[in-house]
Amino acid sequence: MGEYDELVISGFDRACVKYPDKTAIIYLGERFSYMSLKNLIDRFATALHDLGVRHNDKVMLYIPNCPQFLIGYFGAQQIGAIPVPVSPIYTPYEMKYLINDSDAETVLCQDTNFRYIKEVFPETCLKRAIVTNYVDLLPLYKRVVGTLFDKVPDGVIEKGDNVYSFKNLIRQYPPQPPKVTINPRDHLSYILYTGGTTGFPKGCIATHTGMVSFVNEITGVGEGHISDGEEVFIMVNPLFHQMAQGVILGMVLTKGNTAVLMPIPEVDAILQAIQRYRGTLFLGAPTLYRMILENDRLDLFDLSSLRYCWSGGDVLPLEVLNRWKKRFKVPIYQVYGATEVGFTAMSPLGREPVPGSIGLPLSSREIKIVDPDTLAPVPPGTPGELLVTSDYISKGYWKKPEETAASYVEIDGKTWYRTSDYVNMDSDGQLYYVDRSADIIKYKGYRVSCSEIEAVLQDHSALIGACVVGIPDPKVGERIKAIVVLKEDVRGVTGPELTKWCKQRLAPYKIPQYIEFRDMLPKSKVGKLLRREVRDEERRRVGKEKKPIRV
Fold first, then answer.
1. Which distant-in-sequence residues (6+ apart) come within 8 Å of 547 by Cβ?
2. Per-residue confidence (pLDDT) for residue 451, from 0 to 100
3. Residue 237 contacts by C-beta under 8 Å, 6 or more apart in sequence?
């Protein structure tokens, strides 16, 4: 057995023994110690097993940042099941696909989105739904006060043989989950979905060994800087993202530290949490840092407790980096990675981050910078596509052989992941982000698949073609623009109508902000959409201040 060959929960279990009474998480003002959180995880694992969840069964987590997420994540893994975290703002259209693609038979969802689950239940492989509420684990007096003042969002739940209450399960079952045998090298620790190039999201997978290696890399970056049992992490990033999972494990729950879980990323609430709990660690997308800096109430909050801040999900503008450092005397360190491979690079702590750099490659990640057409290495100092490999990364997608063939390549006997990101490396080994594939848009830190939006648009009976591209915007990274072609005999279809169509089928961050109608789209000789050509044209238009019309 190697050093990483253990279950993902093992590091947390060790912290429970070492720091049983320390606060593991703070949620809506309520503190959960390491042992109390462990007790809840064990109770839920026992309940899942009694409900029939077994080895390799999939448990979808359709909930925001809250204790129930961690309880569901660890509880499923503990009995050999596989958690499938997804965004709590996904629509029924998206959920139907994700449930069936992942083979999920169990879903843990908020009562506010249970109606979506109910809508798609008969058309999926689901066998059971477990429903929870924002305040299920809070004391009675807090639940009563929240309800009286209408501060607790809730939904209508219809009882049924296949619908269970999370709160009742936790009360009913003892913390005695069955002992199961799991090979961490082979057993999946999760399935995480990211945008696909064929119009459908693709499931990224990792074994327990792979996830533990990723977590240990993050812990290693913090060695000598991140204390054990003393740090307070303000957890704004959604836990259904791998970045947040890696950080909360690598810097918090394996080290006896505390995470303040923020269910809704509102700037004032974030600032108040940093001040109230003396937050020392913070992670956010560049957009969030800009929103904080531009908040007109920023002077009312004391953020002097912050020691280390990280940015991920997109390139950090130098203007934001400089303003933050000047205002708070704390730099912002960069993290870079992809759901397929975890973090690939991070800024080393203990020295000023290099402006514009996305960090140094992590020790377990081997990289190549290549010509995207030939896959031959480019000369030093020349931009090229970044390839990543590791002994621990997955070698493909869940049930997606075509996507796997397009994104993974064999070179020198190793399987490399093609990031579709173009980078440069300086003589010191620092990586610098140059550009991304035309297939991916970065909006507010989200990776949005152009093909997924195009597929939804082309399902509309009035359209014969669609092309989606990103329009550069310093505040959010890129805004989403759709260029569409109507069928010859169609009249009267408007931008707002197509926007409404998208809203019914896509999460809010995927909705195009601009829609333009054209007579045709550029295609190659074999009929392939030339999206990069359209994207470059739009960038030139923005550079000339010819702004697209907003719908």
1. none
2. 85
3. 243, 244, 247, 283, 284, 285, 312
CATH architecture label of 448-543: 2-Layer Sandwich (3.30)
Q: Report pLDDT digits (tens) over 96-145.
A: 999 999 999 999 999 999 999 999 999 999 999 999 998 899 887 666 55
The more confidently predicted of residues 201 and 73 is 73
The answer to whether residues 507 and 90 touch, using CB atoms and an 8 Å cutoff, is yes
Cα 431 to Cα 10, 347, 384, 418, 447, distances in angstroms: 33, 10, 11, 16, 20
Q: Which CATH fold would you assign to the domain 10-265?
A: Rossmann fold (3.40.50)
**3-state class (DSSP) for residue 415:** strand
Q: Where are the beta strands (DSSP E) in 243-394?
A: 258-261, 281-284, 308-311, 332-338, 342-346, 357-361, 366-370, 384-389
Tell me the CB-side half-sphere exposure of residue 61, using CA atoms within 13 A. Answer: 27
Q: Strand 258-261 and strand 232-235: pairing?
A: parallel
Residue 288's Cα: distance from chain center in Å? 15
Q: 281-284 and 308-311 as β-strands: parallel, antiparallel, unpaired?
A: parallel
Burial class (CB in 10 A: 0-12, 13-18, 19+), 219: middle
**155 within 8 A of 110, measured Cβ to Cβ:** yes
Write down the domain spans for the chain.
Answer: 10-265, 448-543
Q: How many CB atoms lie within 10 A of CB 503?
A: 13
Q: Kindly report, residue by residue over 284-298, the tens digit of the pLDDT.
A: 988 899 899 999 999
Residue 223's Cβ-count burial label (10 Å; 0-12, 13-18, 19+) is exposed
Regarding pTM above 0.70, the answer is yes
